[in-house]
Amino acid sequence: MCLRELQIIVYRKTENPHNITYGELRRNAELLTYLCNNNIHSEEDFQNVVNAAAEKSDRLKKSSDKLLQEIEERENILKDGARYIELNKIRMPTAVQLEELMKYNYLTKFNLRSEADIEIHKQEIERLKSELSETEKSLEAAEKEKSTAATNYKTYLRQMQSDYDFVLNRLKREQEEIKIAEQDLPREQERAAHANQEYYR
Taking a C-beta distance cutoff of 8 angstroms, is the pair 71, 132 a contact? Predict the structure, then answer.
């Protein structure tokens, strides 16, 4: 498949072969390498590769956002957890203390009872940050692959359109040549008939 694509894309006939730029040759070479490396044999294959790259990038972006949210939540535990635990230990809180406790109501779901609980979340933050770092590296690579796939697909579509235009123009020329030949045919037949008459005289 790669050799056939090479013949179609790089060595295709053009109206003005000298107008092919270095940039175009480089883009075509990159496209051919991409086609071979990704086992692409059709436009549908190419669309599948582009879609898969986009889906992977989106999935990693969602994972990154989720990890950032979890880290932020747990960092709030480190910031407000000690005061939340302290307020919860007061048996007869004042109205001011109750109002302050309401500000920390978002910590209720973490079931904080002691400094040991806060320490667990501190350790979890380190694990989440490590996971986030790896996810961001993967996301960076996925976004690069997404961009590469999209760029090569645009080159592919542009090249296929160029090939289509070339074939269309060639067919138009052939039809014009046939039309001219058909118009000249009666004259040629008349000339041949006249020549035969002259010969037999």
Answer: yes
